[in-house]
Design brief:
By secondary structure, this protein is of the alpha+beta class. The protein contains 18 helices and eight strands.
Amino acid sequence: MVFLTFGIRELTLALVFVGVFIAIRRWRYARRSKGLPMPPGPPGKLLVGSIMEISQYEAPRALARYGEKYGDLVMFKGLGNHALVLNSLQAMNDLLDKRGNNNSHRPISIYGGELLGLNESVVFLPYGEEWRAQRKLAHMALSSTAIKQYCSMQEDIAAILAKDLLDSPDDFFASVRMSAGRVVIAVTYGIPSGEIQTECINLGERALEIGSKAVAPGNYLCDLLPFLKHAPSWVSFQREARESKKVMFSHKMQPYEYVKREVAAGSALPSLMRDLMTNPPKGETVPETRLQWLGSSMFGAGSETTYATILTLIMAMALFPEKQKFAQAEIDRVLGFERLPTIQDRERLPYVDAVVKEAMRWQPAVHMGVPRRSAEDDVYDGYFIPKGTIFIPNVWAIAYAPNARYDPEAFIPERYLDPKEDTVDPSLWAFGFGRRICPGRFLAENSIFIFAATILAAFNISPPADGQLEKEFTQQLVRSPKPFQCQITPRSAAKAKLVEARAAASVV
């Protein structure tokens, strides 16, 4: 009886403590929120809440449907975390651009930042002095003016891509991937075509795959439950992190050491890294580690979006042949038949440019933007947003916003040429927002345009002769078509000879 009484007293005391704890938390929250509610969202499940519903990058359409129910702001909660999905361009610009001082931080990444050692990369760096220093270098080297020196290099690589498609049309996936990587490695480090360049591209692809997986919400439980970083070394994610860290280190160091040797020998080719090594900002000494991290970050920023968008464009041209014919007719009318397009021709080829924009919108490469984190409590549109909230821009919702004139599911480049239409240019959301916008966006846009224009000028693209073209896409941070078949044939014998001659004249 004494034991039973003691147990009841202990239980009662424990319940009182729990009640007091909950009451204090609610009181503190009420003070912080000033009585304002958080944005609405799904109720979720016991213990884990709704946070796990955004753990996979296959979610954009589902999150857009939540937006239809709850609005532009949809809050997911659970495991002590808050994630706010933004379903409109207005909300993204307001919170990620205009309030960038508070909302330009990255989520604290245990796996990517601590275990992989990427916490000095511009992708993972917190918003602060070192991040600003890396961004300053990137903006200086990749401004719309600075990248003009690389236009001929990009045109050369586009011609080599066309020659690869001429020689091995069935291997177009590999050809596009290699060409996208070649631009970034050549521009960043000045590494010419050959064994070293190929090795650096392959390293970059492996590093990009690792990094994309690391930043995806929910891929690693230790990011939601940080104490798991102390798990034993034999646990699977710890083993994976050790092996992945070696790849990331090689990706950072190998091309950097190459250009460093070339600069010392006086034989370095023009490149972003050569310029920063030999002509740093006035009055500044740039640490080597800063240059190494900046260079390694360039690959993901420029390669994968180009690869994904060009493959999407090839798919679209096979599925919508009438749009392909309109683009080819414009190229023939404006340029004639004696040369391939150049980047300077972009303003003279508005329909081709619209085809590129539509490919970016129709199947967005980055359909959910890289997450951000708030530094302090905030109030927006009558809602309380707690400190530490993770922002996830659902750009899919922008790309597929309902439209009275043009079906968002259809491939219609004309939407960008219609003066009565207010379709948002994909360049305003495809490369990020505010202070975290991709500094390499101008370089990437040039690569995408010249690859697309060169392919359209030289080739006809059609569905496979013996079957249907499957429209399926990967579900990753950067979303690209899964392997599909199509026919890529030269538009004429004269076009084939033009491709061969232009590729032979390339100097990259």
